[in-house]
Amino acid sequence: MADARLDEQLRFGRRxxxxxxxxxxxxxxxxxxxxxxxxxxxxxxxAGQAAGAVGGAHWLLPWVLGVLLLRITxxxxxxxxxxxxxxxxxxxxxxxxxxPAMIGPLTGYREVHLLHTAHHEHLLEREDPxxxxxxxxxxxxxxxxxxxxEYFFVHYLRxxxxxxxxxxxxxxxxxxxxxxxxxxxxxxxxxxLLLLSTRLAFSTAYxxxxxxxxxxxxxxxxxxxxxxAWLAAVVWALGGGPALATLRYHDLHHRFPExxxxxxxxxxxxxxxxxxxxxAFVLGPCPHLEGCARCDDAIRTGSGFQARSIQSSGA
Length: 315
Hints:
Blueprint: H1 2-13, H2 17-44, H3 46-50, H4 61-84, H5 94-98, H6 109-121, H7 131-135, H8 138-145, H9 148-160, H10 166-185, H11 188-210, E1 215-216, E2 219-220, H12 229-248, H13 250-255, H14 264-270, H15 275-278, E3 281-283, E4 299-300, E5 306-309
Antiparallel strand pairs: 1-2, 2-3, 3-5, 4-5
Helix pairs in contact: 1-14, 2-4, 4-11, 4-12, 6-9
């Protein structure tokens, strides 16, 4: 009976074409709101004042725009994450390929898709691009993630060896032009504030997904986190219900990556958290002293720990 209920929940929760269309609309809406924020910043800046668009910009406006950008970027991160699990880079529209220029001009959907797919396929293996983030100390991990947007592009080139073709070149050029336009038209300190807001929102979301959700003390794996109330409130304020569900049931996301984020909580009621199944790796001596094939291929991480496989329940 329990298996039948689980099968029903899995069927109910799997992403559908309607979900894919909803993610795309949400991403487009977020992009439109980000564009509007930058247009307001231009109008309120010296260029707009010189053109007579406004009589003067209030000092508080850039901070308001920065806070809005934090919220929109955190929401956008979750929507793009869901979309990556549905649509390959060649099937997305040009807007989605190009517009992440405001996080950084080097990385777009193509690079994010490759990196996140590799994370799921090679969880905590040598090929997992997030491995050094997950095994590092939290401060060092967060500092690395601040520049992770550039790392996405470097990882793509290391993995593929070259750009994907003329379309990829067009994407890079378009992102560079958008970024350059913002540098030229948005007032200096306002631009800095907006870019920092975007990067901090993206980096914080990625830190929670890549470090916080894959750690339980010295153990590294995929976990279901009972977050403190203050953190749950912050996550909800930034990313809404989908962000909260993604963080609370990340173990289920790795076991069933085809499930929509909105169905994770219902699925979690059917599947209790299994600490042994969630723990894919430990940091330190391997308890399998003999007969463990994966331990023979132990890897040295950048933090100096030795990470060895114990069990994986569905990376």
